[in-house]
From TrEMBL:
The lineage of its organism: Bacteria, Pseudomonadati, Pseudomonadota, Alphaproteobacteria, Hyphomicrobiales. It comes from Mesorhizobium waimense. This is LysR substrate-binding domain-containing protein. Gene3D superfamilies: 3.40.190.290. InterPro entries: LysR_subst-bd. Residues 3-109 form the LysR substrate-binding domain.
Length: 127
């Protein structure tokens, strides 16, 4: 994997930290970075035209699974658990629309979590 060109996530991105963790777990300190920063769209377009590697959230790989231009490699990337939160002011009245929106977000992410888990279990990992 270290012989391939890489796309580095934008500076400050949690994915850049994941890439650094992966490098350390492989015993490497540097890689061939051919493209750095930019948007997810530009990184994906670059990947379509090259054999470059990058670190992507599984949800992105899952989203593009039918396009057949991204292949997930069976590599465990050490990373911390991350969470998404909804913040509300404690001293304000609770609006029904806000509660409904918060519930929709919770339910949507729960559904996505189950879809991704099923996909992870169904995928035949190959190189």
């Amino acid at each position: 994997m270290l012989d391939y060109p890489w796309i580095a996530p934008p500076p400050g991105s949690p994915l850049l930290e994941d890439l650094r963790s992966l490098l350390l777990s492989l015993g490497a300190t540097e890689i061939k970075i051919r493209y750095s920063g930019g948007s997810l769209t530009s990184a994906i377009n670059y990947m379509k035209e090259t054999d470059a590697l990058t670190v992507l959230p599984h949800s992105v790989v899952f989203t593009f699974r039918k396009e057949k231009f991204i292949t997930a490699l069976p590599v465990a990337i050490p990373h911390p658990e991350r969470a998404l939160g909804l913040l509300r002011l404690a001293d304000t009245p609770r609006a029904p629309a806000v509660d409904a929106f918060a519930q929709h977000i919770r339910q949507s992410f729960d559904n996505l979590k189950h879809l991704i888990k099923r996909h992870e279990q169904a995928v035949v990992w190959g190189m």
